[in-house]
């Protein structure tokens, strides 16, 4: 079991009408002039933004607004937000949306008091030293950014999608009302649930196996999402189902399921290049790649794949043939993905095969021209990345 340092400072306000506490929460964390940051029209159409505006005004707080965040949030919008914050002396950023909005807010928060180009942090030229406080009103359970230290941004020029991690950007609070997720489209719900499971799977598949308690927490979380997600798709306004998915999204990425392990995140890194190049939904991209990654590494880590197959996917353990048990677990994941409308190959995801040229672009970007590797359970260089992308075609 690996030594660890667990830090989860985000205050969670969870439940029906939780958003009515926004004004007092922002004030409690020192906010006076707020950047209200959001995405498309759904928060406006649902009336949530008006509730947030009213709460801020009633608390005597002034604010400026910046909408238009897109999935796979763009650096150009971050620049726009930094300029707006500097112009209006913003001292607190409130994200209303899902992971894309939260990550855009974190990136803006990093850049407001940084003298250089904020992309320096993602390019490895600098390390964040300060960050404006960020809070969120979560509307899409998926990315887990509301409780994580991560922030993923896509640079428009060159479509470079990269992530950084720093405890500085952890949200001060996260307001979560499952009722605000009732109107999420089925595809977005399914992709979000896939991302939630994957955040735990990327930690569960570790070379550190002496972690019974953490394994139990992770397995329970993955089973819950696997069992509840189809029920949410059938009954989207069931509060109990939506609440479990929403809370699972936060627990999957606040490092709880990493205690004593070493996260891998190779599938995430491979997927970043897929969604950057083709603009696909992140969760769907993960579903398209994970089975190929799993088959590529399975034989060298059979015990872990057998445990996952039996304890999470409900596969009967064939003690005489552990490899078949492990493989049946991967096949069970693929069956689950298809049941909820997710792809299990790049062809299913895009409707066509990627070209060899496109594949090489992804390999080059993922490896940063051969300068870095990805993964921890199994370290992947350019050749391994290339093979997994080819298997996933």
Automatic annotation (TrEMBL):
Question: Any idea where the Fe-containing alcohol dehydrogenase-like C-terminal domain is?
Answer: 189-391
Q: May I ask which residue range the UniProt record assigns to the signal sequence?
A: none
Where in this chain does the entry annotate a coiled-coil region?
Answer: none
Keyword annotations of the record: Oxidoreductase
Q: Which Pfam families match?
A: ADH_Fe_C (PF25137), Fe-ADH (PF00465)
Lineage, top-rank taxon, reads Bacteria
The residues covered by the Alcohol dehydrogenase iron-type/glycerol dehydrogenase GldA domain are 9-178
InterPro entries, per this entry?
Answer: ADH_Fe/GldA, ADH_Fe_C, BDH-like
SUPFAM superfamilies per the record? Dehydroquinate synthase-like
Question: Which PANTHER family does the UniProt entry name for this protein?
Answer: ALCOHOL DEHYDROGENASE YQHD
> What is the protein's given name?
Iron-containing alcohol dehydrogenase
Name the source organism: Xylanibacter brevis
């Amino acid at each position: 079991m690996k030594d660890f340092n667990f830090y989860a400072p985000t205050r969670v306000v969870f439940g029906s009408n939780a958003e009515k506490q926004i004004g007092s929460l922002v004030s409690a964390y020192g906010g006076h002039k707020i950047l209200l940051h959001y995405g498309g029209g759904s928060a406006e159409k649902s009336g949530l933004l008006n509730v947030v505006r009213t709460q801020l005004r009633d608390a005597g707080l002034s604010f400026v607004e910046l909408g238009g965040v897109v999935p796979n949030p763009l650096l150009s919008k971050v620049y726009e937000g930094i300029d707006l914050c500097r112009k209006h002396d913003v001292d607190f950023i409130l994200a209303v949306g899902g992971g894309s909005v939260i990550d855009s807010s974190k990136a803006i928060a990093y850049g407001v008091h940084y003298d250089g180009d904020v992309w320096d942090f993602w390019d490895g030229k600098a390390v964040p030293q300060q960050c404006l406080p960020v809070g969120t009103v979560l509307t899409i359970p998926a990315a887990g950014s509301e409780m994580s230290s991560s922030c993923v941004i896509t640079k428009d020029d060159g479509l470079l999608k990269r992530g950084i991690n720093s405890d500085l950007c952890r949200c001060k609070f996260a307001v979560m009302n499952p009722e605000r997720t009732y109107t999420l489209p089925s595809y977005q719900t399914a992709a979000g649930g896939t991302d939630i499971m994957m955040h735990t799977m990327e930690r569960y598949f570790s070379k550190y196996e002496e972690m019974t308690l953490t394994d139990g927490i992770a397995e329970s979380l993955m089973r819950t999402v696997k069992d509840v997600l189809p029920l949410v798709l059938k009954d989207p306004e069931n509060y109990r189902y939506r609440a479990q998915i929403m809370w699972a999204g936060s627990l999957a990425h606040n490092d709880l399921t990493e205690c004593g392990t070493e996260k891998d995140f190779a599938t995430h890194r491979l997927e970043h290049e897929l969604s950057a190049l083709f603009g696909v939904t992140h969760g769907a991209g993960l579903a398209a790649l994970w089975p190929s990654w799993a088959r590529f590494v399975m034989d060298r880590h059979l015990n872990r794949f057998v445990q996952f197959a039996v304890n999470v996917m409900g596969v009967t353990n064939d003690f005489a043939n552990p490899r078949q048990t492990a493989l049946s677990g991967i096949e069970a994941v693929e069956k689950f993905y298809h049941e909820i409308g997710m792809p299990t190959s790049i062809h299913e995801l895009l409707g066509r095969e990627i070209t060899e040229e496109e594949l090489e672009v992804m390999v080059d970007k993922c490896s940063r021209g051969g300068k870095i590797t990805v993964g921890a359970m199994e370290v992947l260089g350019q050749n391994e990345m290339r093979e997994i992308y080819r298997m996933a075609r």
